[in-house]
Amino acid sequence: MISPSTQTIDLLCLCLIVPSLLYTLATQLWNLPLKNGPAYFLGMEVAPGFYEGPQARWLSRYHAMLVTVYALDFAALAAVLAAGQWQAVPVWAGSTAIFLTAAMFGFTLWARRSVEWTSPVLSTALSLEPRRLGDYLSWPLEALLVAVVACSWWMLLLDKRAIPWQNALLMTWAVLGTLPGKITVVRQGWPIPADRPEQHRVAQQAARRYSIRLLDAFAWLLASILFMSALRSVWPAARTAGVAQWLVIVIPLAFSLLLIGVIARQKRILDMGRNLRPPGSWTPAFGHAAMMSRSGMIWFTIWFGGILLILVVF
Amino acid sequence: MFLTLDAEDKRAIYQQVVDGVKSLIARGNLREGMPLPSVRQVAADLGVNLNTVAIAYRQLQDEGFVTVRHGAGAVVSSRRARQSEPEALLPPLRTALTEWILAGFSDREITAVVQRELALARQKGDRK
Question: Are residues B18 and B53 both part of a single domain?
């Protein structure tokens, strides 16, 4: 069997990442502001005629932001390929994900602060069904994930060559940081409007489970990349023998497909909440409309900030 | 199972939670041994301070309806209030009846309202 070169591996990654990015743009991101219907913009209730009047420029701004982010990402990729710097492809892929997430998050926060927003005040329903971590998280799987990361580090430390600190720390931080993220997702709650409470509760529950599956798929993809790169460093056959080398590539690729599959399932969640009030789009009886809970915001800032810090420091 | 908290209700949030839980217990929707969400979950779901919910749970515990075990959550413990002596329960009923009389309602009307509310209080199922 022919052994794949590093360039082949990077080319394979590109063949997966570029179509995924374009697919996400076309099917998920482009119409995201309208995902709850024409009465909403990015999950905020807006006045009738929002998309016809002068406020419609917010949609143009959103599209301009997306086009700019994608244009910059693909320009950077073109520069990397033109310079023949194939080893920079994984860094480009990671930076693209971070840049896109930061841009989307920043734009949503800016829009929520600036758009003329008519958030209605509604009576609140309180569900008396307890949420337990064990109902959402599989502790044996979480333990396995930690074991995979620990095993990867053990292999990296066994290797006499220099440890790729940036990649190893980045993956470790990103993978282990998903567990507090998942706990936050379970504990985080949004008020339920007193109108059709059961449908809102079921939709919130489904969204919560979807977020956890998404974090799981992301964590397993990164853990598999970390494990396989550690395996390559200690197992000579993984660098030379065809079957072993392909095995090291195929497993992360399988997890990438799993992640894409989970992302594609978002449509079902969107369909479920189509005729319901999106969380954070209205002011509850006590309190204010919030896009994210305080604990969610703290977790995201620490996790995302940590990723940026590792990228900057190393 | 849901409690409805109204923005225009004059009662404090914690009191609405206490009254709502007691109402569900009285109607048999919440039975002995059934778990309730944690203080943290209720506070997150309502978007209110933890202390507000803690006060409500403490009152329910003091009245003997709920048992709160640290780390294990809250459980419905009884259908009967600790203070179930008629003498202790009469003052709020007298106050309410006085209000109705002062508002100009006849005895027959007050009796009809009391009977209807009593039937509702004992009725099983969610009251919207």
Answer: yes
B17: domain CATH number? 1.10.10.10
Query: Is B33 part of the contact surface with chain A (CB cutoff 8 Å)?
Result: no
AA identity, residue A57: R
In a domain, B8, yes or no: no
Inter-residue contact B64 to B77 (CB < 8 Å): yes
Chain A, nearest residue to B73 by Cα: A130
pLDDT at B85: 75
A63-120 pLDDT, tens digit per residue, is 999 999 999 999 999 998 888 887 778 778 878 888 898 899 899 989 988 887 777 8
Residue in chain B lying closest to A125 (CA): B4
Q: A-contacting residues of B 65-124, CB under 8 Å?
A: 73
Whether the per-residue pLDDT at B93 is higher than 70: the answer is: yes
Structure ipTM: 0.74
B116 lies in a domain? Answer: yes
CA dist A108 and A49 (Å) reads 20
Q: Do B45 and A192 touch (CB under 8 A)?
A: yes
Answer whether residue A176 shows pLDDT above 50. yes
Is B65 domain-assigned?
yes
Q: Domain of B100?
A: 86-122
Domain spans in chain A, listed from the N-terminal domain onward: 7-118, 131-314
Residues of A with CB under 8 A from a CB of B: 121-131, 187-192, 194, 197-198, 201, 284-288, 290, 293, 295
Q: For chain A, say whether B40 makes contact (Cβ under 8 Å).
A: yes
Q: Beta partners for B67?
A: B75
Chain B residues with CB under 8 Å of A290 CB are: 47
Examine the domain organization and report whether B49 and B102 are in the same domain. no
**Is B2 within a domain?**
no
Q: How far, in Å, are A52, A78, A87, A95 from residue A83 at the CA level?
A: 46, 8, 11, 18
Q: What is the pLDDT of residue A256?
A: 81
- How many angstroms separate the CA of residue A281 from the nearest CA in chain B? 13
Number of structural domains found in chain B: 2
